[in-house]
Amino acid sequence: MEILGIRRRIRQILRDAREADQLRVQLAGCSVAALGGTNPKHVAVQGQWGWSPSYQDVLELRRRYDRLRMACESIQGRTFAQAYYLVETALHEDRRAREKIGT
Q1: What is the C-alpha separation between 10 and 2, in angstroms, rounded?
Q2: Are the C-beta atoms of 5 and 26 separated by less than 8 Å?
Q3: CA gyration radius for the chain?
Q4: Is the separation of the CB atoms in 64 and 44 below 8 Å?
Q5: Average pLDDT over all residues of the chain
Q6: pLDDT of residue 69
Q7: Closest CA to 46 of 57, 37, 38
Q8: What is the pTM of this model?
Q9: Mind giving me the DSSP string for 47-76?
Q10: Could you tell me which residues come within 8 angstroms of residue 71 by beta carbon, excluding any fewer than 6 positions away?
Q11: In this structure, are residues 66 and 34 in contact, taking their beta carbons and an 8 Å threshold?
Q12: Does residue 99 have a pLDDT over 80?
């Protein structure tokens, strides 16, 4: 009877170790996405080992930040009307992207 308990405990330890490894990978993915280091060709998608809802949230937030940063950088030297149009376009794209993913 004791051997069965030990085997069960070993299996649980192995499951916990695999889960901890996956959580480490997911957390690293969040960090990479937050820093803007995610290659568009290698984005994790739902169902993959490194994907998590938190990763997706961070990735979308970074994409929104990048779009707004690019709009702000292109404002320099433009009239107010041109700058307003660029920012509004970026915000509209952001709203469409959020509607698409349901946030």
Answers
A1: 12
A2: no
A3: 21
A4: no
A5: 87
A6: 84
A7: 57
A8: 0.69
A9: TSTT--HHHHHHHHHHHHHHHHHHHHHHHT
A10: 86, 87, 89, 90
A11: no
A12: no
Q: What does the block give as tokens for 86?
A: 């660029």
Measured N-to-C along each axis, helices 53-75 and 2-34 cross at an angle, to the nearest 10 degrees, of 10
In 3D space, the residue among 55, 59, 56 whose CA is nearest the CA of residue 26 turns out to be 55
- Contact predicate 26/54, CB 8 Å: yes
- Tokens 């993959």 belong to 48
- 2-23: pLDDT as tens digits: 888 899 999 999 999 999 999 9
- Please count the residues of the chain: 103
Cα separation, 29 vs 21, whole angstroms: 12
